[in-house]
Amino acid sequence: MTWRSQESGESERASTSKQAKAAESKQEEVVESKQAEAVESKQAEAAESKQAEAAKQISWLAGLDPYVALARYTVETYVRSGSGPLLSAEELAALPPEMSKEKAGTFVSLHSKGNLRGCIGTIQPYAENIAEEIIDNAISASTKDFRFYPVKEIELDSLEYSVDVLTTPERIDSINELDPKRYGVIVSRGSRRGLLLPDLEGVDTAKIQVDIARQKAGISPDEKLTLERFQVIRHR
């Protein structure tokens, strides 16, 4: 065997060894990643189980969507006592973590016998967290919606609640970018602004959606406007 052939063979073996080590290292990274994911999944399951157990101990939370339960608890507390609820550490711990740790605009809607009884919300968050945002808007929906008189105690048992958590609105250029079943719309001109939530009964086209939002904002049909859209997570 010549010197050149020996050198070539050693080079090939070295290259093969490097490739094998690289493949082994990559495989180890994949295994470690899967192990980390498994640990995170178990931790999430444990936290969810702990939160569910805590919720069972809170009477107003039992068996209900926590977002809806908080809105209902708030309205009933406010109508009966004149002040909103002050959540204890135990009650906060019984809520999903995002409700006490994250911020988002929310809308609280009240219905009675199938008819709207109040709906007020915030496009951008103002409160410290989602839970506080729901509390503020639930009180407003039951007492400050100018279309209705304040909710009375005798009505409480007949009320149905829904809570919408909004995504951050995004500017759009055309009504063609709307889908009234998927997106809510915000129309604005100067300081005038109107919003309509998505997936509402009777609102089947983007034109109807925008026309209603225009009316709410006091923007006439011949005025130019700015369009924004958003999505919601709806809790019932």
**CATH level 1 name of the largest domain:** Alpha Beta
SSE order in H/E notation? Answer: HHHHEEHEEEEHEE
Number of strands: 8
The amount of helix comes to 40-55%
Structural features:
3 domains, 4-stranded antiparallel β-sheet, alpha+beta, single chain, Dna Ligase, domain 1, 6 helices, 236 residues, flat
What would your notes on this structure say?
α2 (66-81) packs across α5. The strands form two sheets. The protein has a four-stranded antiparallel β-sheet with strand order 2-1-3-8, covered by helices on one side. It has a four-stranded antiparallel β-sheet with strand order 4-7-5-6, with helices on one face. With 236 residues, the protein is α+β, with helices and mostly antiparallel strands. The chain folds into three domains: 9-56; 59-166, Glycoprotein, Type 4 Pilin; 167-236, Dna Ligase, domain 1 (2-Layer Sandwich), CATH 3.30.1490. Helices cover 45% and strands 19% of the residues. The longest helix has 54 residues, at 3-56. β5 (184-189) and β6 (192-196) form a beta hairpin. The chain has helices at 3-56, 66-81, 89-94, 97-101, 130-143, 206-217, and strands spanning 106-112, 115-121, 159-166, 170-172, 184-189, 192-196, 226-230, 232-235. The protein has six helices and eight strands. The mean pLDDT is 88.
Q: How is the topology of this model organized?
A:
Layout: H1 3-56, H2 66-81, H3 89-94, H4 97-101, E1 106-112, E2 115-121, H5 130-143, E3 159-166, E4 170-172, E5 184-189, E6 192-196, H6 206-217, E7 226-230, E8 232-235
Antiparallel strand pairs: 1-2, 1-3, 3-8, 4-7, 5-6, 5-7
Helix pairs in contact: 2-5
